[in-house]
Amino acid sequence: MSGPGEVTLELDDIQRGILSPRPTPYAATYLAFRVDDPAHGRELMRRASAVVTSAADSASPLGETWVSVAVTSTCLAALGVPRSSLDTFAWEFRQGMAARAKALGDVGESSPENWEAPLGNPEVHVVITAVAPDPLLLETAVDRARPAYDNLPGVTAIWRQDCYALPTETEHFGYRDGVSHPAVEGSGIPGSNQLEVPLKAGEFILGYPDELGGTQTPLPDALGRNGSYAAFRKLHQRVAEFRRYLKDNSTDPSDEELIAAKIMGRWRSGAPLALAPRCDDPALGADPHRRNTFLYQRDDPAGFNTPGGCHIRRVNPRDTSVAGEVRLHRMIRRGAVYGPPLADGVLEDDGSDRGLMFAFIGAHLGRQFEFVQSEWINDSIFFGGGDAKDPVAGSADGTTGYTIPRRPLRRRLAPLPRFVVTRGGEYCFLPSLSALRWLGDLRD
Ligand code: HEM
Fold first, then answer.
1. Which helix (H) or strand (E) element contains residue 426?
2. What does the pLDDT look like over 341-371, one tens digit per residue?
3. What is the pLDDT of residues 386-415, one digit of tens each?
4. How far apart are CA 236 and CA 224, in angstroms?
């Protein structure tokens, strides 16, 4: 499975949800729990170790149906993990996502006091995720998870969010999602960009060398090794407002599609501007072998095809000359749509809550998720773009327009409103299967 000089990952100890791409299509559910009785919480961990699927299990009879378990830092403390061990976990994880709101741009309507309860509250202790290829099998996955928390009065389910990915993987703004994924050395799972050298396993799995040559593992090793971190985010999408912005800033329907592509960096079909700069190429958008194999710097340093400020070039500038080292800021990204789609062509909001449930996974919360969110999404200094924000996911305040590089004159669009509002989120640790047992064996 691993090439010469590559690290060998202990796949049978690593949660499958960290490394395995989700099936297409799929249904998923996020269940959050509060632990009132530490003994019951530890029992939950012990039982969870038996229902969580490992990364070695990809050919199991249950196929693409699996369960993951994540815990917050308040959970680890409640279960009795000693302070000396807690202090070795990532600083951002120990703070919790709500405490990091300002740095993440979660201000105004996105600020934690406006989050959906109980997200952001210290009572969120455990998050169980079940994934399956369709809603029927999802119930099978949930049934598989149930023995972990059934009949434990000291563990209470406090939140559930169902979500799904369509066969086209289209998210609510109408773009194909789930396209670009990094390759992880030693995982056996190929990335989607053949021009990207696989990333060191330690970028995503704790206990292995990372891109800087170091090995970060929360202590003791039995707890930290083979684990990872996840930043969960529930992001509400203002679909009608997004559609109106495209319409109001374009001259006709084909110009509207061009603007939509210039904002994202891909046509809605998934075809990248880097490979299809003038018009959409739906066959390219549907081809997993071609649609993500490209770089920016050689052919398009100034962004005439793919603007430096568009969503995908910001969040992964690839080989673009930007301040910093791009490979230190990569993430494994799992997004699923929640809420009903807004009917085609509707330009008025219907009041429904719809958006994306994300899990951004990596071993370095600070230099991965937090960096991308604060420096690349909510700032443009890194590529010389002033104070503009990501046109899709940024915390825009209606003051800064969007710039499309163009010869002889750049094109300026109207000031961007905020299209995405944070409904909540949490930083979690994804323990290894043996660490779940270790947590289960803790004593008061
Ligand atoms: C509701 C908000 C968001 C929407 C609608 C959205 C949509 C998309 C779409 C359509 C793509 C292109 C398809 C793909 O590569 O899978 C994409 C790529 C990506 N997004 Fe987002 N996104 C959102 C928020 C975020 C946030 C908050 C982050 C990071 C903090 C992020 C990070 C990424 C990354 C890393 C890629 C891959 C870029 C590449 O490698 O080319 N996205 N997103």
1. strand 420-430
2. 999 999 999 999 999 999 999 999 999 999 9
3. 889 999 999 999 999 999 999 999 999 999
4. 33
Residue 357 three-state SS: strand
Dist. CA 422–CA 114, nearest whole Å:
9
Q: Residue 36 Cα, ligand 1 centroid: separation in angstroms? A: 36
Start-to-end Cα distance in the chain: 42
The radius of gyration of the chain's CA atoms, rounded to the nearest angstrom, is 21
Find the 393 Cα to ligand 1 centroid distance in Å: 8
**Interaxial angle between packed helices 433-440 and 38-51, expressed in degrees from 0 to 180 and rounded to the nearest 10:** 150
Write out the two tokens for 213. Answer: 């040559």
Rounded Cα distance between 133 and 165, Å, is 9
Nearest Cα to Cα of residue 169 among 330, 334, 362, 390: 334
Task: State both tokens at 41.
Answer: 């919480």
Task: Among 169, 177, 360, say which to mutate for ligand 1: greatest number of ligand atoms within 8 Å of CB.
Answer: 177
What is the sign, positive or negative, of the torsion defined by CA atoms of 390, 392, 393, 395?
Answer: positive
Hey, whose CA ends up nearest to atom 35 of ligand 1?
315
Q: Where are the domains of the chain?
A: 11-235+428-440, 237-328+374-425
* Average pLDDT, integer, range 151-175: 95
Structure tokens at 85: 């061990």
Amino acid code (one letter) for 191: G
Question: Is 216 in contact with 202 (CB distance < 8 Å)?
Answer: yes
153 — phi, psi (to 5°)? -60, -20
Residue at 31: amino acid letter: L
Q: What is the dihedral of CA 388, 390, 395, 400, to 10 degrees?
A: 30
**Taking the CA of residue 7 as centre, how many other CA atoms within 13 Å lie in the half-sphere pointing to its CB?**
23
